[in-house]
Amino acid sequence: GRVKMSAEEILVHAVELGKNFCLYFDELECDALCKEKILHRVLRNVNSQLLVVRPDLNVAAFEDVTDQEMQSGKGMHFSIHCYKTTTPLAGMPVAFSVQVENKSYYMCCERECGETIVRFKEGEVPKEIPGESNIIFFKKTFTSCCSKAFKFEYSMERGMFLAFEEEGYLRKLILKKLPKDEVDETMKISL
């Protein structure tokens, strides 16, 4: 009877897939992105430092965080808003927000003096996003063999990824161009 059982299992999976598949297309007639789920995570870099947002100083940087600071969690517990997508190959579209002093801030990118800057602005992430948006990043696995770590590509400038750069003692969150077929450890982010 084992063969029969596995055939049934396969059947069940096919049906499940079918269901999602239909749902998926019913809801997605436009290119709008609709929020699907929210993950609550800290963002760590390759040095196991945590991304901390300090809106008062207008800075976001990876820092060594003590367990105690982690408990209070100011500016380091992110909500990662995942959106449905019609183009899964580009990566999962996500937006980031973070709570600091009872206010919510969302991550976006802005052009300033010819370069694109990562900013955190007060406000909520929208439930739906029409087509293009400067708050959307594509979440991709960091390398094919490393499924636990990710890199985040800015949706409006392909090839530009969230990364950190050392500025004095700060490891500041920036957008950085990834040269083709290279691996850049500063873009490696673990959730």
From TrEMBL:
Its main location: cytoplasm. It is found in: Cytoplasm; Secreted. GO terms for biological process: cellular response to lipopolysaccharide; cytokine-mediated signaling pathway; immune response; inflammatory response; positive regulation of cytokine production. Gene3D superfamilies: 2.80.10.50. Forms a ternary complex with ligand-binding receptor subunit IL18R1 and signaling receptor subunit IL18RAP at the plasma membrane. Mature IL18 first binds to IL18R1 forming a low affinity binary complex, which then interacts with IL18RAP to form a high affinity ternary complex that signals inside the cell. Interacts with cargo receptor TMED10; the interaction mediates the translocation from the cytoplasm into the ERGIC (endoplasmic reticulum-Golgi intermediate compartment) and thereby secretion. PANTHER family: INTERLEUKIN-1 FAMILY MEMBER, INTERLEUKIN-18. This is Interleukin-18. It comes from Cinclus mexicanus.
